[in-house]
Design a protein that fits this description.
This protein is an alpha/beta fold. It contains 14 helices and 11 strands. The protein folds into 2 domains: 205 residues, Response regulator (Rossmann fold); 155 residues, Rossmann fold (3-Layer(aba) Sandwich). Helix 2 crosses helix 13 and helix 13 crosses helix 14. The longest helix has 24 residues. The radius of gyration is 25 Å and the shape is globular.
Amino acid sequence: MAFWGKAWVWGLAAVLAAVFVMAACGDNKEEVPGVTDDEVVLGTHTSLTGPIAVFSQISITTKAYFDYVNDTKGGVNGRKLKFLLEDDAYSPPKTVDLVRKLVEQDRIFALLNGLGTATHLQVVDYLQEQGVPDLFVSSGATEWVKDPKARHTVFGSVPNYLAEGVVLGQYIAENFAGQKLGLMRQNDDFGADGITGIKRGAGNALEIVGEQTHEVVDADLNSQVDRLKAAEADVIAIWATPRQFSTAIKHARLDLNWDVPFIVSLVSANEFSVALAGPEVLEGTVSVNYIRQGYEVDDPGIAKHLEIIRQYTGTEDATTLTIYGQYIGELMEEVLRRAGKDLTRESLVKAAESITNFQCSVCLFPASMSPTDHDPIQGVYLVRAQGGRWVRFGGPISYEGALPGSMTVADLKK
């Protein structure tokens, strides 16, 4: 009886060992955070509240586009897309806590379109350390795209601020040569990159008579405008959010009766600056753009965009921010499609780097990336505020292949 007992135990042990080996080695698949057979979980930090809450339209629209893809296409490669939005109110300390939650508790597959330069700078290294793909940051800071080798998992989304500044600086040099240039910027990488670009683009064509800075929490920019008026600036280049930019131009026009031309970052070239400042005050302001405008309702891409946002968000009208949100959704959908059914974080990064001339339905320029280029959109049009709309003028301006760190006017192709 003892003999058969031992034999039975040894036999059971052998069977269990075989089962263990088969389970460990059978298909040799490791668990991928945020990925199941029927779902992919993505997350972001955004500003649903706080000083730039209007930008919440971006992530809300991206989520709406994913809902549309889930309903009409069954998701991507058989997996539904789940998008978690965490509200950091544009506060860097909150961003840190919320992104840790997304990674360590929600176990997201990738972080998509984290909003803000100052906020995302607090988490970009953490995401890299955790191996979490950091796709299409909602900021044009050169920090994300200047060195893809050092930041293998990080990708930009909008035209980088330095390149945007070079384009607008060239415009200033061509139209205001020999005059005085006043500079205003948010006191972070957003403002620093843009104004660096302005200086490169303008070169020695103008005399710079002041560089005024402000914090994102400042109530208005009146004193900065006052100082540039005292310096007799003939034109002002400003890198600010819509709320603060509108205080600057309204103070100049309505309080000081000063018709100095303003050149503004694309961050403020949208419907919200028009609403805050007023169409008459904004008239003639120049900026750049790279996506279609909400008033282009006859364009098939915008027509479809309106259908999506009306059905999935209840929003009636398209804006620059909703259109950008759909661009992000379409680009992410394409990357996931290319990454295939056997989805891993590394396959996602490789898929992003394989994008070549991807034309989203609401974009003016195709997106291209590679292992040495994580800056998808490298082209803009000049736009001018006319009758409450941002209207394109001139032809497309491309700087495809230019590295942000060394970019100059010589890289611009018209």
